[in-house]
Amino acid sequence: MSSFPAVLTACPLFSQIEPHQLQQLLNCLGAVRRRYPKGGVVLSMGEPVSDVGIVIEGGVHVVQEDFWGNRTLVSGVGPGGLFAEAFSCTGTPHLPVSVIAAEPLEVLFIDYRRIQHQCPAGCGFHGQLIRNMLSVLAHKNQTLTRKLWHVTRRTTRQKLLSYLSAVATEQNSDQITIPFNRQDLADYLAVDRSAMSSELARMQNEGILRYHRNHFTLLRRED
Q1: Does an H or E element contain 205, and which?
Q2: Inter-CA distances, 203 with 35, 171, 196, Å
Q3: Least packed by Cβ within 10 Å: which of 4, 9, 36, 61?
Q4: Which domains does the chain have, with CATH numbers?
């Protein structure tokens, strides 16, 4: 690569790696940039994968479809975020999810095998890269565990409150912005969109929360 995007300096994979080292590292990793239109398929379910994707611009949805075409949103990834790292790490022969461009997208692909093994040049920062990848994988595992907490709740209301409470804690505020529209949120929580919208309206009427599009204010009711 002749130059690297500034967003990569905030990417967790490159934490504690100096910008002047990053250019050398990307060359060492054989990084390749690609663009996709909104709705474009970045990775298809069932195909092998060996590359880690890093979002430079736009965002992706990681989705899973069953035999009948029912879609579940596993996660969303924005600028500086990674996808497919766990599947690349384990050498998964058949990808169990698809990755779709949620908006016009630019991605940087890196062959995971080049991350695993020290390059012939013996780059001093390659060890830091490996440590960063372990941290990324651990963080992603925590994220998926939190999602499991939400989707295993019994009712749509409980799923919504679990998710919104977690986001409020993460953003340290009772006024939050979520990265999903209504359909995406329903897919993420594995609930019917109409039922979810009705439940949100009921909770607003009951004074539990207020919302406008993807902005929410969580309210504490007085006894």
Answers
A1: helix 193-205
A2: 41, 21, 11
A3: 9
A4: 6-141 (2.60.120.10), 153-218 (1.10.10.10)
- Give first-to-last CA distance, the chain, whole Å: 61
**The residue to which tokens 């019994």 are assigned:** 154
For the beta sheet containing 175-177, the strands, ordered from the edge strand earlier in sequence to the opposite edge, are 175-177, 215-218, 209-212
Nearest Cα to Cα of residue 178 among 218, 139, 138, 207: 218
How remote is the C-alpha of 176 from its chain's centroid? 18
For the full predicted model, state whether its pTM sits above 0.85. no
| DSSP code string of 50-115 | -EEEEEEES-EEEEEE-TT--EEEEEEE-TT-EESHHHHHHT-SS-SSEEEESSSEEEEEEEHHHH
d(CA 99, CA 102): 9
d(CA 75, CA 65): 13
